[in-house]
Automatic annotation (TrEMBL):
Biological classification of the source: Bacteria, Pseudomonadati, Bacteroidota, Cytophagia, Cytophagales
Organism name: Cyclobacterium marinum (strain ATCC 25205 / DSM 745 / LMG 13164 / NCIMB 1802)
Domain Nucleotidyl transferase span(s) in chain numbering: 8-224
Pfam family, one: NTP_transferase
Protein name: Nucleotidyl transferase domain-containing protein
Protein backbone atom coordinates (compact mmCIF):
# COMPACT_ATOMS: atom_id res chain seq x y z
CA UNK A 1 0.00 0.00 0.00
CA UNK A 2 1.31 3.44 -0.92
CA UNK A 3 2.07 5.80 1.91
CA UNK A 4 -0.12 8.92 1.88
CA UNK A 5 1.15 12.25 0.58
CA UNK A 6 1.08 15.63 2.31
CA UNK A 7 0.02 18.52 0.05
CA UNK A 8 1.05 21.91 1.46
CA UNK A 9 -0.63 25.06 0.17
CA UNK A 10 2.19 27.60 0.25
CA UNK A 11 1.36 29.98 -2.58
CA UNK A 12 -0.42 32.63 -0.49
CA UNK A 13 0.46 36.29 -0.86
CA UNK A 14 0.60 37.10 2.88
CA UNK A 15 -1.02 40.50 2.33
CA UNK A 16 -2.28 40.90 5.91
CA UNK A 17 0.96 39.52 7.35
CA UNK A 18 3.15 41.76 5.23
CA UNK A 19 5.46 39.10 3.78
CA UNK A 20 5.96 35.47 2.80
CA UNK A 21 4.99 33.85 6.09
CA UNK A 22 5.30 30.36 4.60
CA UNK A 23 9.10 30.71 4.52
CA UNK A 24 9.51 32.96 7.55
CA UNK A 25 11.38 31.67 10.63
CA UNK A 26 9.34 30.90 13.76
CA UNK A 27 11.00 28.02 15.63
CA UNK A 28 13.95 28.22 18.08
CA UNK A 29 16.33 27.21 15.27
CA UNK A 30 14.69 29.36 12.58
CA UNK A 31 12.25 26.61 11.60
CA UNK A 32 9.28 27.55 9.45
CA UNK A 33 5.80 26.47 10.56
CA UNK A 34 5.74 24.11 7.57
CA UNK A 35 8.58 22.09 9.05
CA UNK A 36 6.57 21.11 12.14
CA UNK A 37 3.81 19.78 9.90
CA UNK A 38 6.33 17.79 7.87
CA UNK A 39 8.04 16.44 11.00
CA UNK A 40 4.65 15.29 12.32
CA UNK A 41 3.68 13.85 8.92
CA UNK A 42 6.87 11.79 8.68
CA UNK A 43 6.31 10.24 12.10
CA UNK A 44 2.67 9.58 11.15
CA UNK A 45 3.57 7.46 8.11
CA UNK A 46 3.48 9.90 5.20
CA UNK A 47 5.83 9.16 2.32
CA UNK A 48 5.87 12.30 0.18
CA UNK A 49 5.38 16.04 0.54
CA UNK A 50 4.19 18.29 -2.30
CA UNK A 51 4.57 22.06 -2.06
CA UNK A 52 2.27 24.38 -4.03
CA UNK A 53 4.12 27.70 -4.29
CA UNK A 54 4.19 30.91 -6.30
CA UNK A 55 6.86 31.19 -8.97
CA UNK A 56 8.43 34.09 -7.03
CA UNK A 57 9.32 31.89 -4.04
CA UNK A 58 9.99 28.59 -5.82
CA UNK A 59 13.79 28.70 -5.79
CA UNK A 60 14.02 30.09 -2.27
CA UNK A 61 11.66 27.36 -1.03
CA UNK A 62 13.84 24.68 -2.60
CA UNK A 63 16.97 26.21 -1.06
CA UNK A 64 15.38 26.22 2.40
CA UNK A 65 13.61 22.88 2.52
CA UNK A 66 15.49 20.35 0.38
CA UNK A 67 18.72 20.49 2.46
CA UNK A 68 16.81 20.25 5.73
CA UNK A 69 14.69 17.14 5.19
CA UNK A 70 15.10 16.10 1.56
CA UNK A 71 16.76 12.84 2.60
CA UNK A 72 13.89 11.90 4.91
CA UNK A 73 10.90 12.18 2.59
CA UNK A 74 10.25 12.56 -1.14
CA UNK A 75 9.68 16.21 -2.12
CA UNK A 76 7.86 17.72 -5.10
CA UNK A 77 7.25 21.37 -5.97
CA UNK A 78 4.47 22.68 -8.20
CA UNK A 79 3.62 26.27 -9.09
CA UNK A 80 0.21 27.88 -8.70
CA UNK A 81 -0.22 30.70 -11.20
CA UNK A 82 -3.04 32.57 -12.91
CA UNK A 83 -2.45 30.41 -16.00
CA UNK A 84 -1.86 26.97 -14.48
CA UNK A 85 -4.87 24.85 -15.39
CA UNK A 86 -6.80 27.87 -16.70
CA UNK A 87 -7.94 27.51 -20.34
CA UNK A 88 -6.90 30.49 -22.43
CA UNK A 89 -10.48 31.66 -22.99
CA UNK A 90 -10.87 32.18 -19.22
CA UNK A 91 -7.58 33.99 -18.60
CA UNK A 92 -8.15 37.68 -17.83
CA UNK A 93 -5.33 40.24 -18.24
CA UNK A 94 -6.52 42.25 -15.23
CA UNK A 95 -6.78 39.33 -12.82
CA UNK A 96 -4.33 39.69 -9.89
CA UNK A 97 -5.90 37.61 -7.11
CA UNK A 98 -4.97 33.89 -6.87
CA UNK A 99 -7.80 31.48 -7.62
CA UNK A 100 -7.90 29.88 -4.17
CA UNK A 101 -7.33 26.60 -2.37
CA UNK A 102 -9.21 24.22 -4.67
CA UNK A 103 -7.29 25.58 -7.66
CA UNK A 104 -4.06 25.03 -5.69
CA UNK A 105 -5.14 21.42 -5.15
CA UNK A 106 -5.63 20.95 -8.90
CA UNK A 107 -2.16 22.32 -9.60
CA UNK A 108 -0.75 19.20 -7.87
CA UNK A 109 -2.82 16.54 -9.64
CA UNK A 110 0.01 15.42 -11.95
CA UNK A 111 2.30 14.50 -9.03
CA UNK A 112 -0.21 12.82 -6.67
CA UNK A 113 -1.53 9.32 -7.40
CA UNK A 114 -2.32 8.18 -3.87
CA UNK A 115 -4.50 9.30 -0.92
CA UNK A 116 -3.31 12.65 0.40
CA UNK A 117 -3.77 15.27 3.11
CA UNK A 118 -4.07 18.99 2.42
CA UNK A 119 -2.91 21.71 4.84
CA UNK A 120 -2.01 25.39 4.89
CA UNK A 121 1.66 26.30 5.09
CA UNK A 122 1.16 28.93 7.80
CA UNK A 123 -0.89 26.87 10.27
CA UNK A 124 0.31 24.61 13.09
CA UNK A 125 -2.06 21.63 13.37
CA UNK A 126 -0.48 19.45 16.07
CA UNK A 127 0.83 15.89 16.05
CA UNK A 128 -2.59 14.35 16.81
CA UNK A 129 -4.04 15.80 13.61
CA UNK A 130 -1.40 14.09 11.46
CA UNK A 131 -1.75 10.81 13.32
CA UNK A 132 -5.50 10.88 12.66
CA UNK A 133 -4.95 11.77 8.99
CA UNK A 134 -2.24 9.17 8.49
CA UNK A 135 -4.38 6.42 10.00
CA UNK A 136 -7.47 7.37 7.97
CA UNK A 137 -5.59 7.71 4.67
CA UNK A 138 -3.84 4.37 5.18
CA UNK A 139 -6.79 2.27 6.33
CA UNK A 140 -10.17 3.96 5.81
CA UNK A 141 -10.14 6.25 2.78
CA UNK A 142 -12.24 5.27 -0.26
CA UNK A 143 -13.17 6.93 -3.55
CA UNK A 144 -16.40 8.03 -1.87
CA UNK A 145 -15.09 8.60 1.68
CA UNK A 146 -12.80 11.51 2.56
CA UNK A 147 -12.07 13.28 5.85
CA UNK A 148 -11.43 16.59 7.57
CA UNK A 149 -9.86 17.37 10.94
CA UNK A 150 -12.28 19.60 12.85
CA UNK A 151 -11.30 22.35 15.30
CA UNK A 152 -13.59 24.16 17.79
CA UNK A 153 -13.96 27.73 16.57
CA UNK A 154 -13.06 29.17 19.99
CA UNK A 155 -9.53 27.78 19.57
CA UNK A 156 -8.80 29.13 16.09
CA UNK A 157 -9.30 32.89 16.25
CA UNK A 158 -6.81 35.77 16.17
CA UNK A 159 -6.52 38.49 18.80
CA UNK A 160 -5.51 41.01 16.14
CA UNK A 161 -8.35 41.04 13.61
CA UNK A 162 -11.00 39.06 11.78
CA UNK A 163 -10.38 35.64 10.24
CA UNK A 164 -12.06 33.46 7.60
CA UNK A 165 -13.24 29.99 8.60
CA UNK A 166 -15.31 27.24 7.05
CA UNK A 167 -18.10 26.81 9.63
CA UNK A 168 -19.31 23.20 9.64
CA UNK A 169 -22.58 21.36 10.16
CA UNK A 170 -21.99 17.80 11.39
CA UNK A 171 -24.35 14.82 11.57
CA UNK A 172 -24.75 12.73 14.76
CA UNK A 173 -22.64 10.08 12.97
CA UNK A 174 -19.74 12.51 12.68
CA UNK A 175 -20.12 13.25 8.96
CA UNK A 176 -19.89 16.70 7.45
CA UNK A 177 -23.31 17.74 6.15
CA UNK A 178 -22.42 21.24 4.99
CA UNK A 179 -20.02 24.13 5.35
CA UNK A 180 -20.26 27.88 4.88
CA UNK A 181 -17.15 30.00 4.38
CA UNK A 182 -17.47 32.90 6.82
CA UNK A 183 -15.01 35.67 5.98
CA UNK A 184 -15.16 38.07 8.95
CA UNK A 185 -15.14 36.22 12.28
CA UNK A 186 -13.90 37.70 15.54
CA UNK A 187 -14.30 37.55 19.33
CA UNK A 188 -16.41 40.33 20.76
CA UNK A 189 -18.17 41.04 24.02
CA UNK A 190 -20.91 38.47 24.24
CA UNK A 191 -19.37 35.78 22.07
CA UNK A 192 -17.97 34.93 18.65
CA UNK A 193 -19.54 36.67 15.66
CA UNK A 194 -19.44 36.67 11.88
CA UNK A 195 -20.08 40.18 10.55
CA UNK A 196 -20.13 40.85 6.82
CA UNK A 197 -22.42 42.44 4.23
CA UNK A 198 -24.72 43.77 6.92
CA UNK A 199 -25.11 40.37 8.56
CA UNK A 200 -24.24 39.65 12.20
CA UNK A 201 -24.32 36.00 13.20
CA UNK A 202 -23.32 34.51 16.55
CA UNK A 203 -21.44 31.22 16.32
CA UNK A 204 -21.31 28.64 19.12
CA UNK A 205 -17.83 28.49 20.63
CA UNK A 206 -17.65 24.70 20.23
CA UNK A 207 -18.82 24.66 16.60
CA UNK A 208 -16.27 22.77 14.49
CA UNK A 209 -14.65 24.67 11.67
CA UNK A 210 -12.35 23.77 8.82
CA UNK A 211 -8.74 24.89 9.15
CA UNK A 212 -8.04 23.48 5.69
CA UNK A 213 -6.83 20.19 7.15
CA UNK A 214 -8.29 17.59 4.80
CA UNK A 215 -7.73 14.00 3.75
CA UNK A 216 -8.77 12.92 0.26
CA UNK A 217 -8.84 9.90 -1.98
CA UNK A 218 -7.14 10.78 -5.28
CA UNK A 219 -10.53 10.54 -7.01
CA UNK A 220 -11.17 14.06 -5.69
CA UNK A 221 -9.12 15.49 -8.56
CA UNK A 222 -11.63 14.41 -11.20
CA UNK A 223 -14.55 15.80 -9.22
CA UNK A 224 -12.70 19.06 -8.54
CA UNK A 225 -11.82 19.53 -12.20
CA UNK A 226 -15.48 19.43 -13.22
CA UNK A 227 -16.38 22.07 -10.64
CA UNK A 228 -13.36 24.15 -11.67
CA UNK A 229 -14.54 24.48 -15.26
CA UNK A 230 -18.01 25.50 -14.07
CA UNK A 231 -16.45 28.04 -11.71
CA UNK A 232 -14.41 29.60 -14.51
CA UNK A 233 -17.45 29.93 -16.76
CA UNK A 234 -19.49 31.57 -14.01
CA UNK A 235 -16.74 33.92 -12.79
CA UNK A 236 -14.86 35.01 -15.90
CA UNK A 237 -15.47 38.71 -15.17
CA UNK A 238 -15.35 38.41 -11.36
CA UNK A 239 -11.66 39.14 -10.83
CA UNK A 240 -11.80 38.58 -7.04
CA UNK A 241 -13.62 35.26 -7.10
CA UNK A 242 -11.94 32.25 -5.44
CA UNK A 243 -12.41 28.52 -5.81
CA UNK A 244 -12.31 27.01 -2.32
CA UNK A 245 -11.93 23.40 -1.15
CA UNK A 246 -15.13 23.70 0.97
CA UNK A 247 -17.03 24.27 -2.29
CA UNK A 248 -15.75 20.90 -3.51
CA UNK A 249 -16.62 19.19 -0.22
CA UNK A 250 -20.12 20.66 -0.22
CA UNK A 251 -20.63 19.56 -3.81
CA UNK A 252 -19.72 15.91 -3.33
CA UNK A 253 -21.96 15.77 -0.23
CA UNK A 254 -25.02 17.43 -1.79
CA UNK A 255 -24.70 15.41 -5.01
CA UNK A 256 -24.33 12.15 -3.09
CA UNK A 257 -20.95 11.43 -4.70
CA UNK A 258 -19.15 10.97 -1.41
CA UNK A 259 -18.96 11.64 2.33
CA UNK A 260 -16.53 13.56 4.52
CA UNK A 261 -15.82 12.19 8.00
CA UNK A 262 -14.87 14.67 10.73
CA UNK A 263 -11.77 13.41 12.55
CA UNK A 264 -11.08 14.23 16.19
CA UNK A 265 -7.39 15.10 15.87
CA UNK A 266 -7.98 18.85 16.10
CA UNK A 267 -6.66 19.51 19.60
CA UNK A 268 -4.01 22.20 19.11
CA UNK A 269 -3.89 24.92 16.49
CA UNK A 270 -2.22 28.26 16.02
CA UNK A 271 -1.46 30.22 12.92
CA UNK A 272 -0.26 33.43 11.38
CA UNK A 273 -2.67 35.87 9.79
CA UNK A 274 -1.28 39.18 11.05
CA UNK A 275 2.29 40.27 11.82
CA UNK A 276 1.33 40.54 15.49
CA UNK A 277 0.60 36.79 15.53
CA UNK A 278 4.29 35.97 15.08
CA UNK A 279 5.31 36.57 18.69
CA UNK A 280 2.57 34.26 19.98
CA UNK A 281 3.50 31.49 17.52
CA UNK A 282 7.19 31.69 18.43
CA UNK A 283 6.31 31.48 22.12
CA UNK A 284 4.07 28.44 21.59
CA UNK A 285 6.68 26.60 19.51
CA UNK A 286 9.39 27.28 22.09
CA UNK A 287 7.07 25.88 24.76
CA UNK A 288 6.42 22.69 22.76
CA UNK A 289 10.16 22.11 22.38
CA UNK A 290 10.66 22.65 26.12
CA UNK A 291 7.87 20.15 26.91
CA UNK A 292 9.49 17.49 24.72
CA UNK A 293 6.80 17.45 22.02
CA UNK A 294 9.62 18.15 19.56
CA UNK A 295 13.36 17.53 19.81
CA UNK A 296 15.77 20.40 20.42
CA UNK A 297 16.35 20.45 16.66
CA UNK A 298 13.84 19.04 14.20
CA UNK A 299 16.42 17.80 11.69
Amino acid sequence: MNKPTLLILAAGMGSRYGGDKQIDAFGPNAETIIEYSIFDAIRSGFGKVVFVVRQEILEESKEIFIPRFGELIQIEFVVQSLKNGVPEEYQHPDRKKPYGTAHALLCAKEVINEPFAVINADDFYGQEAFQALGNFLTHDVKPDLHCMVGYAIKNVLSDYGTVSRGVCDVSPEGMLTGMIERTAISKKEGGIFHEADGEKLKIDAENPVSMNCWGFHQSIFEQTEKLWLSFLKENKENLKSEFYIPKVANSIITEGIGKVKILEGGKVWFGVTYAQDKEHVMKELKKLHAEGEYPAKLW
